[in-house]
Design brief:
Blueprint: H1 12-18, E1 28-34, H2 37-44, E2 53-59, E3 78-84, H3 95-110, E4 115-118, E5 122-125, E6 128-140, E7 143-153, H4 171-175, H5 181-195, H6 202-214, E8 222-226, E9 231-239, E10 245-248, E11 254-257, E12 261-264
Parallel strand pairs: 1-2
Antiparallel strand pairs: 2-3, 3-7, 4-5, 5-6, 6-7, 8-9, 8-12, 9-10, 10-11
Helix pairs in contact: 1-5, 3-5, 3-6
The chain binds biotin.
């Protein structure tokens, strides 16, 4: 993946050359600049087909979980949203969080990175965040009408300033080599399609969940979970089938969280 030319627009033909999917990524909407690929995908979801991908090179108002700003240097990284129209019941929607995190982590491990998942779906390399996932679900009646899986990967960013310098990393920082974003995009889409069947069967999902646990950065560690209005310290003892984190506190109470931010104590 060397010989990469920085500051060039994403080349859709190069993605197609490495894509082996049947439907995920067969249609790609590329815009040089968008506020946010997730916002665009949600606005256009009714016009977009199952498996469509939205990509941009400059994301001016990218956002992450808990409404936080997502910084991405123009032309350097991957800003991508995948639209899935799964036709499943809302209680199964969290499975897409697990699917996205496992697929992204497996793709990076295949490339030789020592990647792990920090609950719920941050991807960590060398103790720093290299990628984040933002899942937006739209439910109509008793059916998930569509899932927008927003994936941001720090690929060729050479340096992070200020607060981010101790928290964020990129593939370039980790290995000193620039990567082809097109090949990475194709690799993620190939991995997503390879894994997506697991969401629809109990046995498949059990295996996906097991891989999620095996790649966890937080399982067995003592953490603080920052919720919207609470702060809980304890050891991470597992994740349930909804992808919720299970903690045991010093007092022996077992507490489950479906959202929040983790900070690791030891
Ligand atoms: C997080 O770490 O909280 C999630 C970050 C998700 C960022 C991606 S970049 C592509 C897509 N568009 C957005 O505005 N956000 C996601």
């Amino acid at each position: 993946m060397s010989n990469y030319q920085a500051n060039e627009k994403i080349n859709l033909q190069l993605i197609q050359n490495s894509l082996s999917t049947r439907y995920i990524g067969q249609t790609i909407y590329y815009r040089e600049q968008l506020e946010s690929t997730n916002t665009f995908a949600k606005q256009e979801a009714n016009n977009l087909t199952d498996g469509c991908v939205v990509l941009c090179d400059i994301q001016s108002a990218g956002h992450g979980r808990m409404n936080r700003y997502w910084y991405s240097a123009p032309y350097k990284n991957i800003n991508m949203s995948v639209i899935i129209k799964p036709n499943i019941q809302p209680q199964l929607a969290p499975r897409f969080t697990i699917l996205s995190a496992v697929s992204l982590c497996e793709m990076l491990k295949d490339l030789g990175f020592d990647a792990q998942i920090k609950w719920p779906n941050d991807i960590i390399v060398n103790k720093r965040k290299v990628a984040g996932i933002l899942l937006d679900c739209t439910i109509e009646g008793n059916i998930v009408k569509y899932v927008v899986a927003g994936i941001g990967i720090n690929v060729n960013t050479a340096i992070f300033e200020g607060e981010l310098s101790s928290k964020a990393t990129s593939l370039y920082i980790e290995c000193g080599v620039e990567h082809s974003r097109e090949q990475l995009i194709a690799a993620i889409l190939n991995t997503l399609e390879r894994n997506i069947g697991s969401v629809y069967s109990s046995a498949g999902y059990e295996s996906l969940m097991q891989r999620y646990k095996d790649m966890s950065y937080v399982l067995g560690k003592t953490v603080t979970v920052l919720g919207i209005s609470s702060q809980t310290e304890g050891e991470v003892i597992g994740f349930d089938e909804m992808g919720q984190i299970i903690i045991i506190t010093k007092l022996g109470n077992i507490v489950t969280f479906n959202s929040g931010e983790i900070s690791i104590k030891y």
